[in-house]
Structure formats: C-alpha cells, structure tokens
Design a protein that fits this description.
Elements (H helix, E strand, L loop, with lengths): L3 H11 L23 E5 L2 E4 L4 E4 L14 H11 L10 H13 L5 E5 L2 H16 L3 E5 L16 H5 L10 H4 L2 E4 L4 H11 L3 E6 L13 H14 L2 E5 L11 H6 L5 E4 L10 E5 L1 H4 L18 H17 L2 H18 L4 E5 L2 E5 L8 H4 L4 H12 L3 E2 L8 E2 L6 H18 L1
Parallel strand pairs: 3-13, 5-6, 5-7, 7-8, 8-9
Antiparallel strand pairs: 1-2, 2-3, 4-10, 9-10, 11-12, 12-14
Helix pairs in contact: 2-11, 3-11, 7-8, 12-15, 14-15
Bound molecules: ligand KE4.
C-alpha cells in the first residue's frame, strides 16, 4: 500500500517537531516504518492523507468510544464555540460536567478539571502528599500515568516501548520517593507497607492496566491494596484515565466493586478534547486550593468547549448504556482472535483487548515483555495493509467503539487470520 503523502508529511514534520510527532506513541517506533498522517475520522474509520480507510482500534488512544464525528458531540461543540472558546472564568458547564462525574462514580464526591491525564495524575500525587504530609508514592511497573516526573520509573506505554525504564531529565530527587512494584504482586505490596507504611502518601495504579497491553488485576491484589492503604493511612488512587467511562459508566472501580480515595480521569470525559480530572472523597479534595493549601491551577482547566464535548459524550453513554454490548462484542473479537492465532495470549475487558505474541499468561509487566514485539510489529503492518489500524505497540490496548459492529469485528478477525498466516 503506497503512502507517499504521509511519507512527505513526516519528512516535513521531522524538521519542525522532535521526532516529527507531538507524542512519541504516534511515531511507530515500536512497530517500525513511518507514521501515517490522518486526514479525517468518520464513525469507526480513519482516513489517512493518501486516501486509505482504516477500521480504527486506537480511537485517539481511548477517547473516541462513540466513534469519530458523533453528531450529538459535534452539535454541542459547535453551539459552545459560538459563545466563545475560553474565558478564564467559571462557567456552568464545568458544574454540569462535575455533576455528571460525581453522579457516575460513587467514590467521587468532588472533582477538579484539568487539561490532560498527566496533569490530573500529577495533581493527584501532590494532593496525596499534601493530605497525608508524607512523601512516598507506590506505583506499579508497566502502569503509565502520563509524563509525571516522579512516575517515569518503569512506565508503561511508549516509555516501555522505547525501552527507557526512566527518562533522562528526571532528577533523582524526583524519583527517590517513588517505589515501583510488580503489578499483581501482593507480597511485594505487603513488604513495602511493612517496611515503610507510615511514610506512604499514596498508591497509584491502573485498576485495569492498558499501558503494558491489557492486564487485569487479581481480586486478591485489589483487596490487599484497599486493606493496606486503609491500615496505614495512605490514599488509594485509581488512574482511570483510560478505563473511566470506558469499562463501565462508573469506571473500572464499578466493575471491580472497589472504592478508591481518589480517581484520575481523562480521555473519554473530554470527548476528544483536552480534558483531565481528579476527584474523590470530599475531605481529601477540600485540600486543593483555593479551598485548601495544596496548589494546582490551569489556564484552560474546565474549558467550556471541551466541557461541551465531554458533557455530550457522557450524556450519550448514560442514555445508551453501551457497556453490556461492548462486553459481548469484546468477547466476540477475542474468541475470533484466539482461533485466528492459536496459542497466543489475548486479554480483554469490555471494549479493551490486546493480542500478545506470547503463549504464556500475561499478568504483569515482566510477562508482557516476554511477547515477541518484533513479530507484533510485522503483524501490525500486515493488518494495516488489510485496512485495520491497531495500536502501534505491543504494549497498548486496542479499543472498540460503539460503532465496531459484529460484522466489522468479524472482518478484523478474518484479516488477522490472513495476516498471521502471512507472517510464517
Ligand atoms: P494524557 O496526559 O496523555 O492525557 O494522559 C496520560 C495518561 C494517564 N494515565 C493513563 C492510564 C494513560 O493511559 C495515559 C495516556 N495514555 C497514552 C496511551 N497509552 C496516551 C497516548 C500518548 O501518550 O500519546
């Protein structure tokens, strides 16, 4: 498949933007080849600037659960933009968004809007430290919480893909208070709390991990997380930037029957616009300035146009409740992929899934890294040539939208069988 215009566009971008992209995950470093430049999205499809159509399983890395150019979301954005794009003053749309989030997620009593998942995660960490007066933060290898200095230790997502366990430019002072433990390892967790439990401000994790590929938590891991954080007075922070409003209207925590102290959100709540949020127990959130002493601010926080997109998206999800069908169709494609790729591991929750090029179970970062990432790269391009746009890394999750019908998923399964046969 010729992609001349993307090649030209990439060459131009490389002289202007570091690596030619504004986020490393898009550079195709993990799969080789040159990134595609997109012209537009429509429903479940993306169209590159060479005119090729792809069934989109990235969905902007999660936000586009309703598909591209959803009419209700577009109408809300157009109405909002005619009233102005940004005021730097409070608007009622921010309260409407806050009400929707608080109503949807039982553990969230108050919420603060910011402009990205990274900003939300960074603020949640500052809040945990400010609320407890402690410094230590626990995270888990393979989980990614944005490019937060103190959390760029064994990050998942593109940091994993680039093989950079922690980034240059992060002073050791930023990470000396960060413990990175293996995901799903209750013994390591118990040992950490036994050793320094009274210094731990918070524990942050992806309750269902998407940034090492899709990895699910064990019930024991989740209950130990809640028990130990309660016992030692640390805050339990669920990073639901990816899973919030994706796996259930109430997020992964609703699906898993868990109650964290703080929840970090992003992606879907912006409906494709730059929105992040962090929320949780009122007594904790009231520590945030100007209600409390913990500083956090943002010029475009709660931007009215972005709020309009997010509100329209959440209202559509609340009205249609697509989650049972997303789960059914998630199982449908995974069963098909297991037949198309006998022996390979496929993990799935709801509309998130990952085909790992390994025959072993994938339950944490180390087992995920046993996958043959090079073979995944060849599979990625074989699927691209068959009109299927998968996440461009073995260590990412694929996302079905509500417009990924059974027929389209079946086409993907047929393409996968053909692609895998072409690899041998
Ligand atoms: P943003 O700052 O990219 O909005 O959110 C950071 C973030 C925080 N927490 C979780 C669980 C996340 O998945 C992310 C961002 N996800 C990546 C993809 N795995 C975004 C893609 C990219 O970096 O370009």
């Amino acid at each position: 498949m010729q992609r001349i215009r993307s090649e030209q566009a990439f060459r131009r971008a490389q002289s202007l933007i570091p690596g030619g992209v504004n986020s490393p995950a898009r550079a195709f470093g993990a799969v080789g080849g040159l990134p595609l430049f997109m012209a537009r999205g429509e429903g479940p499809f993306l169209y590159d600037i060479d005119g090729h159509r792809y069934l989109d399983y990235i969905g902007s890395w999660g936000p586009m659960i309703l598909g591209h150019c959803h009419p209700t979301v577009m109408a809300a954005v157009i109405e909002a933009i005619h009233q102005g794009s940004s005021f730097g003053a409070p608007t009622e749309r921010e309260s409407e968004m806050a009400e929707l989030v608080i109503e949807a997620i039982a553990s969230v009593e108050m919420v603060r809007m910011v402009s990205s998942g990274t900003e939300a995660a960074m603020s949640a960490i500052r809040l945990a430290r400010g609320y407890t007066g402690r410094d230590l933060i626990i995270k888990f290898a393979g989980c990614y919480h944005g490019h937060v200095d103190s959390l760029l230790v064994q990050a998942g997502s593109s940091a994993t893909t680039l093989g950079v366990p922690n980034s240059p430019g992060v002073p050791k002072g930023c990470t000396q208070d960060t413990l990175s433990l293996p995901y799903n390892d209750t013994q390591a967790l118990a040992d950490a709390f036994k050793t320094c439990g009274d210094q731990i401000a918070g524990v942050m994790l992806e309750p269902v991990a998407g940034n090492m590929g899709l990895v699910t938590p064990s019930a024991e891991f989740l209950s130990e997380l809640r028990r130990l954080t309660h016992q030692y007075g640390a805050l339990l922070v669920y990073d639901e930037v990816m899973t919030g409003f994706r796996l259930a209207y109430g997020g992964a925590q609703q699906l898993l029957g868990q109650t964290p102290d703080v929840t970090v959100l992003g992606k879907i709540i912006g409906g494709g616009f730059p929105v992040g949020a962090y929320g949780g127990r009122a007594d904790v959130m009231k520590k945030i300035m100007p209600a409390g002493p913990v500083f956090q601010a943002g010029t475009l926080s709660g931007n009215p146009v972005a709020m309009a997109a997010g509100i329209a998206t959440l209202k559509e999800l609340k009205r249609t409740n697509p989650y049972p069908e997303l789960e059914r169709l998630g199982r449908f494609i995974v069963e098909g992929l297991r037949k198309a790729a006998p022996g390979l591991t496929v993990n799935q929750v709801g509309s998130m899934w990952t085909l790992f090029f390994t025959t072993e179970p994938v339950t944490n970062y180390d087992t995920a890294k046993k996958s043959d990432a090079k073979k995944f790269g060849r599979f990625f391009w074989a699927m691209m040539d068959r009109g299927v746009y998968l996440p461009c890394s073995q260590f990412e999750a694929a996302f079905n939208s509500v417009l990924h019908t059974e027929e389209r998923l079946a086409e993907t399964v047929r393409a996968a069988a053909d692609a895998i046969a072409s690899l041998s």
